[in-house]
Amino acid sequence: MQYKISLLTGLILLTASLYKLNRSIDFIGRSEQATGIVISLEDDGDGAYSPVFVVKMKENEVIYNHPVANGPPTWDIGEEAIFLYDPGDPDSVTMKDYFLLFSWAIVFMAIAIPLIIVGLGYYLLSPLMRLQGKSYTGKLNGNC
Asked: Is the pTM of this model over 0.90?
């Protein structure tokens, strides 16, 4: 029964991963690039600093707080980065970074693949294990 739960969970996570991957690829396809400049470093309280960018788009500017903080800071004030945004939704600004664009798809896939392999392996091998179990019990009882 546990292998069925493992297989089902893996398939659900695989579906979620493919959905997130598709959404990320669609976002990248329809997005435009903009340049962002670090205007300050925000202290998160633990000695880690996250950069705050001003992203200059065609029509306006948006303040972007980077979700990753590092201590010591890895960004300097005045540094530039490339951002992607949906022209129909200027608040959809995301840094052009592989992990930020595909993070949930990667995480879901990394969990789904082992669950599918283990669940499918047990599912396919369970008839063989039942046959071997019967032959062993027959030999133990002297019923060869």
From this structure: no
